[in-house]
Predict the structure.
Amino acid sequence: TKYCNREQTSLQIPSRALAQDFGTMSHGSPRIITLEDGWYNEIKKKAIDRLEEMLDGGIKKGTQMFLPREYVGTYTTCYNMCTQRNPYNWSRELYSRHGETIASYLTRVVLPVLREKRDIHLLVELKYRWENHIIMNKWLKKFFTYLDRYYVKHNTLPTLSHAGLRHFQTLVYEEVKRDVCTAMLHIIDQEREGEIIDKDLIKSCVELFETMGMGTLDAYVADFEQPLLQNTREYYRLRRQEWIVTDSTPEYLIKAEKALANEKARVADYLNPSSEAKILKVCEEEILEEVEMVLLEKEGSGCKVLLANNKADDLRRMFRLFARIDNGLVPMANIVQVFISEIGHEHVKGRQARLDAGEKDKNDDPEFVKSLLKLHGKYLGVVKDTFDGHSLFQKSLKDAFVETVNKNVGNFTNAELMSTYCDRVLKSVEKLNETEVEENLDKVVQLFSYLTDKDLFAEIYRNQLAKRLLNQRSLSSDAEKSMIAKLKMQCGTHFTSKIEGMLADLAVGSDQKNEFVERLKRNDKVKLDFSVQVLTTGFWPTYKSPDVTLPPEMVSCMGEFKKWHDSKHAKRKLTWQYSLGNASVRATFGSKTYDLQVSTLQAVALNAFNGDEKLSFVQLQEKLNLEEPILKPLMHSLSCGKYRVIAKSPPGDKIKKTDSFRYNSKFSSNMRKIRIQMASLEPSNSLKRVQEERTNTIEAAIVRIMKARKTLGHQQLIAEVLQQLALFSPTTLSIKRRIEALIDREYLERDKDSTSTYNYLA
């Protein structure tokens, strides 16, 4: 039968045995158990003394300490002593003697042994005694379970287990904790030096510290973790002083990384997980933060040297380690920026040196642009791969290239050099395949993003695009559209609206162009192959339009086109741009016939010499009705260039007003089809036009801001204007002048109470 249902114990003892052991009164009344009898003759003799003997003798794993019958006998005695009516209810006395038993054993047996031990022997003995205490606490709790269930609960006393731990804490732990901590720290230092230690022993001691917190980690933190942190700091302070003298930066960082990994593993092996962040923080402060600048700037192995020697692994390790400390990457990023800037300046100085050595300064310097592209590609890769694309290093790269790309050398800005390089790529001068074209355009746009004068680049690019499109020199429309899409992504729709309109003009005009060509074929009066490209004025660059005297054949063709165009678009006005046209001229020199690919103005000039007539510069100027600044480069291309189809007298490489010209009967070439280049009559950019557009843009930004804010201080207005203007960086003086101009035109007014405040006038 189940014994004592109200206790809900799972042990089953026959009722006959209980009666035999404890007996009953002759009329069924229970026998009264006195305190001394129950304690000494039953509980102490049969349970506690035996328990102490087993603990002192050593308990082998798997040993059964008490049989169920023995355990139940002691439990029943305790139960009966606690359930007798007063004055024979011994609950209070048994609770007190439970604590006295534990305290007595700890004082008599445990403490004397521990006091004799030192270092690792102390830890071994403590582990053994702590494990014994846990066993003792467990069995005493079992024997006195009834106290826990009723007496302890009803009197709000510490549970038996808690009380047992308190006695160990008060009597043993408080006395030995300092020596134990010192011994543990010594063993941990031994492991740091590479020795093999008993990790289970340390772990058991750590668990003791944790348990002594009675449900918290207060004891662990105060009595072990704080000394551990201090010891760790001192240990790595000494290692740091040693390493910084003997090791290079990469060697030092390898040791530092290994130390951090070891400390993390140490926590996982035998320390409380909450200690990990604190220990690593101490290590980082001692071996990284204290010597960061020394490591970064160390002669022969610092950050600059690693960058110069492409030591990716060492730089990656440096990045990982200094990322662990607060603001640890800032000085490293600054060094990277300075280094890239210095390399960039070397490239700029290289271009300056070539110019100083006598190289002709021109807007086409692919060698310089390629060097910048290669430099940017290299360190962009370093930022992405070595520094994980961290924002600080992206900013370092950006700031370094903003400084480099905007440092102009010679008469041409880097904006013009970059645009001209794009022109070479898109005209296939660089001889690249489709993939390489795309890659080069991507790289140029990345450099373009660092330009402060993006509007100047846009103006130059638009002029060069116009020439490519009109002269049919473009590699492909897809490549042109791809470049425009990249610029649009970088700067927005407003930036690319005009050049998109240029492509749209060519696409829309092709159908009308074909229609007119078909009509011209049916006209017997027209003897030339003639086609016209109609352009929208707002999209395309503005060009000089010299009023040249054209041959009758050309005039006739133009008249036919005007009739046809007026019938289609009566309200549109046509303006002829002769400087943009081109022609194919059949020319005979001696017995050879050539096809000359020339501009319209060159064709008109060649036609003037059709009868072997000799003309002076002044006569030719009157005949063609061209001004000197236009006629000189025109005749230079025909008489002083690679293909001298016109003979100049006297010979020379410069055109003078006193020169005379005639058909060159001695001209000869191995090629039948010849393209004769001519210097552009227009500059690749008009700084005056760019300045005018900037003026309008600044004023528009000021008005837009003031319209929204109504009233604003001078410094605030300046700051907001600078923030809004992304395509160029105006000076504070230029913004101030535009503010004054808007005040004069009554868009703004100064506040009556404060001259540094402006009001918007609707």
